[in-house]
Design goal:
This protein has helices at about 100-110, 190-205, and strands at about 25-30, 35-40, 45-50, 55, 65, 75-85, 90-95, 115-125, 130, 135-140, 145, 150, 155-165. The chain is mainly β. The chain has one domain (about 25-205). The strands form three sheets. Strands 1, 4, 5, 6, 7, 8 and 13 form a seven-stranded mixed sheet that branches. The chain has a four-stranded mixed sheet with strand order 2-3-12-9, covered by helices on one side. Strand 2 (about 35-40) and strand 3 (about 45-50) form a beta hairpin.
């Protein structure tokens, strides 16, 4: 008796929002989904939430498109990002790829559906954020947040990067103009992390 194994292969989703004429594509640059980053005050990795309506766009209305947040050389600039708009608590925008070979290569991977993730680079003032320690809760703009978390209410956008794997799982290429990305708090994959941080904090205050 032989066992036959059936393997299903799925083609990558090709974005309908990709425009060959302008080498551009519509993306979700950021959401209010918690991401884990190193906190500048605590010195440990905690949840970071930034309100997307708090992003300050430069007066020019555009920021550079970088390769994986690499600011070390102009050769890492793959294009520019413009036409920012906040919808359903997500930040949408248009990515325009340059005519360089590196940018065309990245654009082709996006067009084929192989490269989908994006990420934002920004800076903020501590006075424009709220640090909520472990075990504490705080209401900000009608929403309740449970620590440990830093909630950033205002930040300055510096760049948008295309990346192999982005920190925000919802910051991706828009497949179609009709597709909608709604903010949904995502905590299932950080419960263990929060428990460990809380335990470490408890041990520290006992020393």
């Amino acid at each position: 008796m032989t066992t036959q194994l059936t393997i299903r292969q799925y083609a990558p989703l090709k974005p309908e929002t990709f425009d060959d004429r302008t080498r551009s594509v519509r993306i979700v640059a950021a959401t209010e989904n918690p991401i884990i980053k190193r906190d500048p005050v605590l010195g440990v990795r905690i949840n970071i939430v930034h309100f997307v309506d708090g992003f300050i766009i430069p007066p020019s209305g555009q920021v550079p498109l970088l390769d994986s947040h690499d600011r070390s050389s102009v050769s890492n600039v793959l294009g520019s990002v413009r036409n920012f708009e906040v919808k359903n608590r997500v930040l949408e925008c248009d990515v325009f790829f340059s005519g360089t070979s590196a940018a065309k290569d990245a654009a082709q991977k996006v067009k084929e559906g192989h490269l989908t993730d994006f990420s934002v680079g920004y800076y903020y003032l501590l006075s424009d954020s709220h640090l909520i320690p472990p075990g504490k809760t705080k209401e900000i703009r009608g929403r309740t947040f449970k620590g440990p978390v830093r909630v950033i209410t205002k930040c300055y956008l510096r760049e948008v990067s295309i990346a192999p794997i982005g920190a925000d799982r919802y910051a991706k290429v828009k497949i179609s103009d009709k597709s909608k990305t709604k903010f949904q708090p995502d905590t299932s994959d950080i419960i263990l992390f929060v428990f460990v941080v809380y335990l470490l904090f408890f041990l520290l205050i006992r020393i």
